[in-house]
Amino acid sequence: MYLAKVVGTVVSTSKDERLVGFKLLLTRRIDNAGAANGQPEVCVDTVGAGSGETVIVTKGSSARFAADRQGAPLDATIVGIVDSVEIDQE
Q1: Residue 61 in this model has a pLDDT that exceeds 80
Q2: Which of 32-36, 55-59, 70-74 has the highest mean pLDDT?
Q3: How many other C-beta atoms can be found within 10 angstroms of the C-beta atom of residue 30?
Q4: Which of 45, 73, 75, 78 is deepest in the core (most CB within 10 A)?
Q5: Are 45 and 57 in contact (CB under 8 A)?
Q6: Looking at residues 54-83, what average pLDDT do you find?
Q7: Residue 61's CB: how many other CB atoms inside 10 A?
Q8: Residue 55 C-alpha from the chain's centroid
Q9: pLDDT at 70 over 90
Q10: Contacts from 63-69 at CB under 8 Å and sequence distance 24+?
């Protein structure tokens, strides 16, 4: 799992039938300072996240399990909305 920022939405009227009913959001991983970095990634939203929110993303078989669609062709699922992050300074 990793933290990401929701940077947009994805609308797809023509898609695999196993993805019908899912809200798709565009996310980017964030670093320790909370800044978005890396390439944008399409994620299935299972928690009602919105644009600009920090979210928890899971990938791979865990993503399919979290979305309760074992046979669906998805690789990343938003499983939580983050309220705050505390990083201990050493």
Answers
A1: no
A2: 55-59
A3: 19
A4: 78
A5: no
A6: 84
A7: 10
A8: 7
A9: no
A10: 67/22, 69/18
Where is pLDDT greater, at 16 or 70? 16
Does CATH number 2.40.50.220 belong to domain 2-81? yes
pLDDT, greater one: 25 or 21: 25
> Which amino acid, one-letter code, is at 29?
R
Which residue is it, tokens 């791979």? 60
CA distance 83 to 19: 28
Place of tokens 């499983």: 79
66 C-beta neighbours (distance < 10 Å), count: 21
Structure tokens at 80: 């939580």
Residue 71 DSSP SS3: coil
Q: Show the tokens assigned to 54.
A: 């920090």
CB contact burial 33-56 (16+ within 10 A = b; e otherwise): eeeeeeeebebbbbeebeeebbbb
